[in-house]
Amino acid sequence: MIFCLSENERGKLFITDRDSPSCLYISEVNPRFGGGYLHAYECGERFPFFLMNNMNGIVNKPCIGKYESGVYMMKYFDIHMMKMEE
User: Fold this and answer.
1) Phi, psi torsion values for 52, nearest 5 degrees
2) What pTM does this model have?
3) In a 3-state reduction of DSSP, which class is residue 21?
4) How many alpha carbons lie under 13 Å from residue 71 in its C-beta half-sphere?
5) Among candidates 74, 76, 42, 48, which has minimal Cα distance to 60?
């Protein structure tokens, strides 16, 4: 199977995968935010801002690694965000 996107694809894609010793399996592709979105938001990532840029034809500048570290997220029936020093 070959997985590719059109060059016109824009916005958020949530890709669920499973790793095995021989290959990577993609089980689903959804145009939505995944469960880790809240963690990224708490660390300073502002996806709605990036999406607005995309819709207006503005290219987002790469910001890999420019986020607050030491923030943990625990997922269960509720969500609790905490900073490392708490």
Assistant:
1) -60, -40
2) 0.51
3) coil
4) 14
5) 48
